[in-house]
Amino acid sequence: MTHPDVVVTGLGATTPLGGDVASTWDAMLNGQSGVSALTPDWAEQLPVRIAAQLAVDPAELLDRVKLRRLDRSEAIAIIAAKQAWADAGLADSGLDPERLGVSVGSGIGGALTLLNQDDILEASGPRRVSPHTIPMLMPNGPAAWVGLELQARAGVHSVASACATGAEAITLGMDMIRAGRADVVVAGGTEAVIHQLPIAGFSSMRAMSTRNDEPERASRPWDKARDGFVLGEGAGVLVLERADHAAARGAHVYARLAGAGITSDGYDIVQPHPEGTGAIRAITKAIADADIDRGDIVHVNAHATSTPVGDLAEIKALHQAVGDHPVLTSTKSMSGHLLGAAGALESIATILAIRDGVVPPTINLDDPDDGLDLDVAANKARHLEIPAALNNSFGFGGHNVALVFTRA
Amino acid sequence: MTRDEITTGLAEILEEVAGVTPDDVAEGKSFTDDLDVDSLSMVEVVVAAEEKFGVKIPDNEVQNLKTVGDAVSYIEAQS
Question: Which residues of B, range 38-77, sit inside 8 Å of A by Cβ?
Answer without folding.
Answer: 40-41, 43-44, 47
